[in-house]
Structure formats: C-alpha cells, structure tokens
Amino acid sequence: xxxxxxxxxxxxxxxxxxxxxxxxxxxxxxxxxxxxxxxxxxxxxxxxxxxxxxxxxxxxxxxxxxxxxxx
Length: 71
What we know:
Elements: H1 2-12, H2 19-32, H3 36-49, H4 55-68
C-alpha cells in the first residue's frame, strides 16, 4: 500500500518539492516487498533525475543501495 501512495504522489507532482523523497520512499517500499530490481531502478531514476537532491536523501540513497545490493 505504501508503494502505491508514494508512486501516486510522485506521478501527480514529478517535479514537486517532495518528488525526490517520494522516489526514495517508493524504492524503500519496493525493497521491503522483495522487489529488488524495481527498487534499484527507482533508486537509479532518483539519482538521474535529482542529482542536486538534499544531502539527507543522498545519504539514504547510498544506504539503501548497499542494503539491497544494487549493482
């Protein structure tokens, strides 16, 4: 359910203030559902589309990628 909420929020405002955070949380939700491929793809999109995201988001992104072993 959480993944749906974050996806909908991102899709409704893909350039909004919370877009990067929504992608991060979507990726984390997918990882929690054991959807590693989709989670890693979401993290890739976050990194590509929001290279200037906050240091907090970048820190969590690195941690999550390591946690689920994204390539």
